[in-house]
Design goal:
Oligomer: homodimer
Shape of chain A: globular
Strand order of the largest sheet of chain A: 3-4-2-1-15-14-10
Largest sheet of chain A: 7 strands, mixed
Distance between the termini of chain A: 58 Å
Number of helices of chain A: 11
Largest interface: A-B, 80 and 80 residues
Structural class of chain A: alpha+beta
Strand content of chain A: 15-25%
């Protein structure tokens, strides 16, 4: 058998499993359904998100021991990253990159912070080719009109594209799957696709079958709260399979499928998200000299694409700057509240100390002891909380400013490229 | 002028600046000295660690505006990463990877946690070549005999080598500089060098001038506490410049220098660490077919090196397992203490409630109100602290377990390689 033939196509599956134990509906039953389907379908690569419990991962691992011998669970944060990969092909290496920003720990009801959102990389040997498979889940969007997490998601999209660009130079093919929590034309999505050159499997598939417009959160799914996607008529598309080749391999999407809410023969769907399956065709190319040339690697894009990228980056920088402004304001509020708590405490102590200091006065507290202790406890609680918040907002500010610095550096570099990169390097600063 | 000649050598400088404002001795004067020297010496690449204050970075940036037009400050954590790079060559791109573990926030006197230790990557255009320059600072070693931070440092070394391996495939040359806080033969150092193939500039330099044995923390330095390095006679070597080439460029270290404590004409040295300068020679190689071949890339090491790497990895895994054990024990202690705090609180409330529940009894507290409130506050404080600690230790545990998973995967892959990688992939699990 020609070895190359055996690896010319690769089937990639992606699903946000909605695996919050005791909270998600029919969690155990759905995992059993997912395991059966995966074992039957035998996709080459299975990318799962929101597998929050390691026990559920181990359950799937056991069930898929024959169909998918290689697997990895990405550990992160307090609960975990929720990311799991199952593969028919050998996983040669893995790497996890935790996003520097991921919501707020005190937004307990949203819970994203505790998940330790990240992007996982698994380097697969697909026959003679090396495929870098990325798996991620970005911060959820709880309100499209008042999306306080937008700067965080833009930073995540920025870090995701950076991570992919920097780690994929040695890969013959790049595949990214996951729940990006961004609509197709959202800023972070445009940033990701234009900077990395990743192509959308749904948009490029020769043949598509599934939900209209490739939607992945649909009204027909019984687990979906109607009000969440009501403004978008039929639903939204936030789960993706993206891919690109290299100078060593061509890649194209032959077909793509999504589930359509219900699963035949079962009372409910696999998850609140629809599952995606893409069949990608890989073709090895003969090694060319251009592959090894760093000049060729650094100037791949035509001018109009670079100009477009500069526009997107400028938009992203603005969004991050809004985030910097908000984080600074929040930190100031925390500081002011902390100072007020301290002042109140000192005032209380001063009032309490008066009878002891004033000669001849009665040596008793001028207010009930219960009020004294309750007020003191309140002040101390305020001081503690505001200190923790100050530390947290400082870290948030650093991450946002760091991203903005990197974006400015990138814009500078791209503008230099637009002007036509000079032979002798111009003596200009690109830093701030 | 032949362009290739102009970039055939590159001078790299690395220094841990000990820049803790108000705490480090003569901080401002030392930064002025450092700026003067850097401006005079005009190294191609300057890698600074412990530039904790952004103001000091901006001071250096202003002073070096003519000699080093390109620069970047890596933001991270609460205080910052302390990492700054100045370069004569264009910085094309940057990326920061925060280590998942970096000490404990309650070890305030050690302070490492607040620094947000990380590895920074700057992609430089050195003439026609692309150089990936890495800059890092690992967790300090406060006691060699009882090094509680060893598992954290091993995880950092693991993440450092992973990050370098995964991001350097597109680079023609790789340079790493910084304070690794590891002796030359320490586990993390061996892991880093064997896995990445990075070579030690001190060991490979054709010509060396400086402290005996290349030491970088020496007794002759007046800022060094004698008891810290007393067990090591003359001092220790924990700062490094490492490098490697690629199939597209050869690299060798022509000469290496270190400072020797005092600086001629100044009353004190630049820092408590010695500064390193390495002169590296870069030679472009003609692009070869092997460069673009993924098979060639994945099987570079001879068998004995792979075997040695398996041994080192096994040693590292053991160390990480010790860390897992300790983190689990600490989490259990936090849980037990939390439960005791809760039990005490409930007991107190029960005793206080007795007079109200028992018919006919006097409706007063059986103990003074002050004690009641103080004990309740203590219980609540215990509950809050142990909850925070539980969350922290859970995150620590996840990171350690995640690293151990990745190490096991790597050992599996290497052992497979040792047995001679089969043409048809064996149906064996490499995951856990």
């Amino acid at each position: 058998m020609d070895r190359r033939d055996s690896v010319s196509s690769i089937r990639v599956f992606s699903l946000n499993c909605w695996g919050v134990r005791y909270l998600s509906h029919h969690c155990a039953e759905r995992y059993a359904m997912i395991a059966d389907m995966l074992h039957r379908e035998k996709h080459d690569v299975v990318l799962l998100q929101e597998v929050w419990s390691e026990k559920d991962y181990l359950f799937l691992k056991k069930k898929l021991a024959n169909s998918h011998v290689h697997s990895h669970y990405f550990q992160s944060g307090v609960i975990g990253s929720g990311l799991a990969i199952f593969s028919k092909h050998r996983i040669q290496d893995t790497l996890l990159y935790r996003y520097s920003l991921n919501g707020y720990p005190y937004m307990v009801h949203h819970g994203d912070w505790f998940g330790g959102k990240a992007v996982g990389l698994a380097v697969l040997n697909v026959g003679t080719l090396t495929a870098n498979v990325y798996l991620t889940h970005l911060h959820a969007e709880y309100s499209r009109e008042r999306d306080v997490y937008l700067p965080h998601r833009v930073v995540q999209a920025w870090e995701l594209q950076q991570f992919i660009r920097h780690t994929s130079a040695g890969a013959d093919a790049v595949i990214l799957g996951g729940d990006l929590n961004m609509h197709p034309q959202d800023l972070g999505n445009r940033l990701l696709k234009s900077y990395t050159g990743l192509r959308d499997a749904y948009a490029e598939a020769d043949h598509f079958e599934g939900c209209e417009d490739g939607l992945t959160l649909i009204l027909d799914n019984p687990f979906i709260s109607k009000h969440v996607i009501a403004p978008f008529e039929k639903g939204i598309r936030i789960d993706y399979i993206l891919f690109k080749g290299s100078c060593r391999a061509d890649i194209r999407c032959a077909s793509m499928y999504t589930t359509k809410g219900s699963v035949p023969g079962h009372p409910f769907p696999y998850s609140d998200h629809e599952a995606l399956t893409a069949k990608l065709h890989l073709d090895s190319l003969a090694p060319s000299e251009a592959c090894g040339d760093s000049r060729a690697r650094s100037c791949e894009c035509p001018q109009e694409e670079v100009a477009q990228l500069v526009d997107i980056l400028t938009e992203a920088r603005t969004e991050v700057k809004v985030g910097v402004h908000c984080a600074r304001r929040m930190r100031e509020t925390a500081t002011r509240t902390g100072i007020m708590g301290l002042a109140l405490l000192l005032l209380e102590l001063a009032i309490a100390a008066v009878p002891w200091l004033a000669p001849g006065a009665q040596k008793t507290l001028p207010f009930p002891l219960t009020s004294f202790y309750l007020l003191a406890a309140l002040c101390l609680a305020i001081l503690l909380c505001t200190t923790l918040l100050y530390v947290f907002y400082t870290m948030e500010l650093k991450s946002l400013q760091g991203t903005e610095d990197q974006m400015r550096l990138a814009v500078g570099g791209l503008q230099e490229k637009l002007r036509g990169f000079p032979v002798v390097e111009r003596q200009e600063s690109v830093g701030k």
